[in-house]
Amino acid sequence: MKYMSEYRDPELAKKYLEEIKRTVSRPWSIMEVCGGQTHSLVKNGIIDMLPDKVTMIHGPGCPVCVTPLNLIDKAIYLASEKGVILCSFGDMLRVPGSEKSLLEAKAEGADVRVLYSPLEAVKIAEDNPDKEVVFFAVGFETTAPANALSVVHAHRRGVKNYSILASHVLVPPAIKAVIDDAESKIDGFLAAGHVCTIMGNSEYHPLSAKYKVPIVVTGFEPLDVLQGILMVVRQLEQSQSEVENQYARIVREEGNPEAQKIINEVFEVHNQTWRGIGEIPDSGYAIRDKYAEFDATKKYNVNIAEAPENPLCISGQIMKGIKKPFECSQFGKTCKPTNPLGAPMVSSEGACAAYYHFSGMVEA
Ligand code: SF4
């Protein structure tokens, strides 16, 4: 397949691996921030082919996994008790809330719909003027422009029965929180290429300079990830700490200014709670007052008690890179994709699901 197979070439992959082996002389821990990169590492067997001195730590970069339990409970409540049409991207549906998932709520009769774009949800609202429509707006900076656009679109068209339940998480503050965590010891980072496509690289320079860590903006195909690792290792071996762009075929230094403009029109930065991790300052988007009527949190003023997480699930430690999925006592036993105890076993970007499906450690 054009523009795909060239980034999966086994011969080139071998060359990158050999170059990494030739370059590395000391043990290094490198965190890939995004769950898409985790899947690429595990699914393609890269994790097992890297030299022992290179340890990959799987980061918190799975927005579905870090969406607060309480917000999932709110979404389920709106769909089940308030009769709203609850729209969402597909991977949110099986994430466990405190009592059930959105998929289970749907099976019980709630109107829960899987969409590929929030603009479809605005159309559903226009077609159903007697119903309220809520879009569960989850994601990194990557999905924020489309979610913001849906709000502007609804505003311009005078659609009053549309709102979004926003849970956006921002990558640079998460990297900072990981570095600041006393338990984690990361020498370098692979930043998430798709996020930088929107936001550019400028937010990473102060982080790299302050903490003296290399940060390489990296794509998701096997060769992208291998080249990103090589670039980080080269910097570490030469005591450098720069921001480099492996994903230059997509990412520009300035990102996508038009997308940033629409994000800033609708959202402002706020402190965000990450499921399993806690609150990280300035790490999320809240809807600006100007668009408050489209903020489902304000519109419905739902008060749902904070439910405790499953005590057996150590997803917080996994997402901070302190433990690997197979170090969880429930991995592959009581916790499987068909019966997930925590979000990292559900999401297509979750580290536990990646190890379950591709590591060969369990019979999937
Ligand atoms: S294997 Fe399951 S229980 Fe363990 S951390 Fe992952 S999601 Fe949680």
TrEMBL record:
Which domain of life does the protein's organism represent?
Bacteria
Pfam families in the cross-refs? HypD
- List, in alphabetical order, the Gene Ontology terms for molecular function in this entry: 4 iron, 4 sulfur cluster binding; carbon monoxide binding; iron ion binding
Q: What are the UniProt keywords, alphabetically? A: Iron, Metal-binding
Q: Does the keyword Metal-binding apply?
A: yes
An example GO BP is:
protein maturation
Family membership: Belongs to the HypD family.
In Swiss-Prot or TrEMBL terms, this protein is called Hydrogenase expression/formation protein HypD
Species of origin reads Pseudozobellia thermophila
